[in-house]
């Protein structure tokens, strides 16, 4: 079944494939957010340069057209991780850059006439057992504010609510409308986009595709979870599944009971991630990491539409909001997100005109914009004679990529063990209200 967001996107490629071998200044592999934001800002920095974006399917086919629509001022690693990598102040720099990025996306969408159902309602992490209260209260500080049970319920009337952590700099949006509008904005600036063009391998100055060879001074890999399809990159990022469902447009009395009037994004503090938003047309779009990792980093459409996984999501949604038991589920879908071995996204200048960014661990709607700006300025700096933003190209995540994941079967075993640990931890915390210490240790390790 199609994603809710795909109703606003072409169902199939609409742009011509690469007609044969070509030569350009910059070749970008991947027409999702990372590739398109890179092209968008490069077109401003290099107005006379030739920029080409290719995609194996079509604009927004991957995570950019299937995600939860959370435009958040966060990246997968926390401030302590960035301080450890870049020294004191690294975390503060990343937080400031991401805070600005949410505003940047909004301003670009206004300037380019992209109506992506933007709503700056903030982000709510609900605490629904005492262990979650402890975990979330530890995050209070800066913009992050603790809400008591009554305050939290006034914004999101979920069951078993003990309080919530509220972060104001998060917007709910329609990811399909954003990615389609961004592609059109790129084309207005002279960027050429070819769909139905599969990259087979990338190397210095060359992209080998099933339609011909592209030679370029600069080559950008913006393929996220699909990086595993490029020759020699099977273990660079692990594709992990996240599935979603969406309800029918809900009647006014149901929406009044659920609240979410200002459209804050919402989750709770369980380890097996869930996430949701109230859409502009009054639905609930809800997702979670419910489908298993496939041995060998396989990406399979059958897994994206796994009935048992979707049933788990629907049951969780009904447990959060019992009033939704009578609501029709109109959309079920899924996709993969890219996870590096150290769970830390990076922007990489690999040398000899090769660039890469990704590993957002499911938090890429805003982070891709910052990555695109970083890549654009790194490329412009390499070209020479173009003013570049030193604050961007020296951010802590502009560094070497993470080490590759272990080969199979070790990769499968590690991921499966981690998933089972977090499932047990959630059951334990719900039953006892006490923190699951082992999961807490592993989670902090992954985030730091």
Short structural summary:
The protein has 13 helices and 18 strands. By secondary structure, it is α/β, with parallel strands linked by helices. Strands 1, 2, 8, 9, 10, 11, 17 and 18 form an 8-stranded mixed sheet that branches. A 4-stranded mixed sheet has the order 5-6-4-13. It has a 4-stranded antiparallel sheet with strand order 14-15-12-16.
Task: Give the secondary structure arrangement, pairings included.
Elements: E1 22-29, H1 33-45, E2 51-54, E3 70-72, H2 79-86, H3 90-111, E4 123-127, H4 130-137, E5 145-148, H5 149-155, E6 163-167, E7 170-172, H6 175-188, E8 192-194, E9 199-203, E10 206-209, E11 212-221, E12 238-247, H7 252-258, E13 265-268, E14 274-278, E15 284-288, H8 301-304, H9 307-320, E16 329-339, E17 346-351, E18 354-358, H10 367-383, H11 390-393, H12 410-432, H13 437-447
């Amino acid at each position: 079944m199609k994603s809710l967001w795909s109703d606003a996107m072409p169902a199939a490629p609409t742009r011509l494939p690469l007609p044969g071998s070509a030569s350009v200044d910059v070749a970008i592999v991947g027409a999702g957010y990372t590739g398109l934001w890179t092209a968008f800002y490069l077109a401003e920095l290099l107005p006379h340069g030739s920029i080409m974006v290719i995609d194996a399917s079509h604009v927004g086919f991957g995570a950019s057209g299937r995600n939860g629509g959370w435009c958040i001022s966060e990246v997968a690693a926390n401030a302590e991780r960035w301080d450890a990598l870049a020294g004191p102040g690294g975390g503060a720099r990343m937080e400031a850059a991401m805070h600005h990025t949410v505003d940047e996306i909004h301003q670009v969408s206004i300037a380019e006439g992209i109506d992506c159902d933007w709503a700056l309602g903030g982000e709510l992490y609900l605490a629904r057992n005492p262990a979650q209260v402890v975990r979330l209260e530890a995050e209070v500080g800066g913009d992050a504010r603790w809400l008591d049970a009554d305050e939290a319920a006034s914004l999101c009337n979920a069951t078993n609510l003990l309080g919530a952590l509220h972060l104001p700099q998060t917007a709910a949006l329609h990811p399909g409308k954003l990615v389609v509008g961004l592609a059109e904005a790129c084309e207005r600036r002279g960027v050429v986009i070819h769909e139905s063009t599969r990259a087979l391998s990338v190397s210095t100055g060359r992209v080998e595709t099933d339609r011909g060879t592209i030679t370029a001074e600069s080559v950008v890999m913006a393929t996220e979870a699909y990086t595993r399809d490029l020759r020699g990159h099977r273990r660079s990022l692990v594709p992990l599944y996240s599935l979603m469902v969406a309800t029918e447009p809900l009647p006014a009395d149901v929406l009044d009971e659920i609240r979410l009037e200002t459209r804050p994004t919402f989750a709770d503090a369980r380890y097996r991630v869930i996430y949701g938003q109230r859409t502009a047309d009054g639905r609930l779009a809800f997702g979670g990491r419910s489908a298993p990792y496939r041995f060998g980093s396989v990406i399979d459409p059958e897994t994206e539409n796994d009935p048992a996984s979707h049933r788990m999501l629907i049951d969780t949604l009904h447990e959060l909001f019992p009033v939704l038991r009578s609501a029709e589920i109109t959309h079920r879908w899924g996709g993969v997100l890219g996870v590096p071995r150290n769970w830390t996204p990076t922007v990489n200048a690999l040398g000899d005109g090769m660039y890469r960014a990704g590993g957002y661990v499911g938090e890429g709607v805003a982070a891709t914009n910052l990555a695109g700006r970083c890549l654009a300025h790194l490329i412009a700096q390499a070209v020479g004679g173009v003013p570049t933003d030193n604050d961007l190209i020296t951010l802590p995540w502009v560094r070497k990529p993470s080490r590759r994941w272990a080969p199979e079967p070790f990769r499968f075993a590690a991921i499966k063990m981690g998933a089972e640990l977090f499932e047990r931890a959630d059951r334990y915390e719900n039953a006892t209200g006490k923190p699951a210490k082992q999961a807490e240790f592993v989670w902090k390790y992954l985030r730091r």
